[in-house]
Amino acid sequence: MLDKAMTIPVLCYHSVNITGVSYECNDHVALAEDLRMLSRYGFQLLSPLTLVRALRGEKNLASGKYACITFDDGADLDYYGYDHPDAGFVKSFQDILEQSSWCHDADPVAPLTASFVIVSPQARKELTVSCFFGQDLIRDTWWRECAQKGVIGIANHSWDHTHDTLVQVRQKENHKGSFYKIDTYQDADAQIRAAQDYLCRTIGDFAMPLFAYPYGHAPSYLVEEYFPSFEQEHRQLAAFGLAPEPVTRDANIWNLPRYVCGKHWQSPRGFEKILKDCAS
Ligand SMILES: [Zn+2]
């Protein structure tokens, strides 16, 4: 259970968001700085899976100030450092977390953070060309090794993100660029259950039972029908959207809010305001 008064910010970063070396144009710089601020403000990092289990009444959380960290899209830069043409060498999210004061909490059963990955190999192959300038930066080769370390767990960000640069997406009319169009059982099954099956085949028990809506789009069919009615099939315990507010005890488990770096805050000051709002 979550204490009635608890307000827990869930933060979201994208490891490909790099256009320079300063906080506002580099999610790696922002993450490192934000981890220090979380520590200064007395927050503890909570595994997103532990948060979900507490919301589902399966676990009690001791009182305290908590924050969760998540990463979207599953680029290699989550796990591997990268020599960026404009920003120089960029440390991976994994390295930043490992070198922070939080790493002693690593746990493969309830990883410290979650990386929501685009699962389809074909989609990732096409994204390599359309979004990564032909560089092979969205592979699945690191998923297992990463998950085993317990710092970044691997979770479900749909089969193909209905990404608008793909030739074919798993949507009945091949509608791209919106996850709101996933509004039938067949499409939901192809985007969510099939993605979880692939994750389980690839990394076994390390596949986290958590979903994040592409673009933060949470169609009412998924929130109200598919997720609550077909738990045995999709095997997810919660789904995360992108509403900028903290998670509370009354949050909808099938559309949990998250704050996105670069969108909902752009500076240490903006981040501080979120922490203060959550703590008040
Ligand atoms: Zn995404």
Summary?
The chain is an alpha/beta fold and 280 residues long. Helix content is 32%, strand content 15%. α1 crosses α9 (268-279).
User: How much of the polypeptide forms β-strand, as a percent range?
Assistant: 5-15%
Overall shape: globular
Under CATH, the homologous superfamily reads: Glycoside hydrolase/deacetylase
How many separate domains? 1
Q: Nearest-angstrom radius of gyration?
A: 18 Å
End-to-end C-alpha gap: 20 Å
Q: What average pLDDT do the residues reach?
A: 95
For the largest beta-sheet, the strand count, sense and barrel status come to:
8 strands, parallel
State the helical fraction.
25-40%
The CATH architecture: Alpha-Beta Barrel
In the CATH hierarchy, the third-tier topology is known as TIM Barrel
What sequence of helices (H) and strands (E) makes up the elements?
A: EHEHEEEHEHHEHEHHEEH
Count every beta strand, where a strand is a DSSP E run of 2 or more residues: 10
Number of helices: 9
Characterise this structure.
By secondary structure, the protein is of the alpha/beta class. The protein has one domain: TIM Barrel. The protein is built from 9 helices and 10 strands. It has helices spanning 27-40, 48-55, 93-98, 121-130, 143-149, 185-203, 220-229, 231-234, 268-279, and strands at 10-13, 44-45, 66-73, 82-84, 88-90, 113-117, 152-156, 207-212, 238-240, 259-260. The strands form 2 sheets. Strands 1, 2, 3, 6, 7, 8, 9 and 10 form an 8-stranded parallel beta sheet that branches. A two-stranded antiparallel sheet has the order 4-5. Helix 1 (27-40) crosses helix 9. The protein is globular and about 50 Å long. The mean pLDDT is 95. Bound molecules: zinc ion. Zinc ion binds next to strand 3.
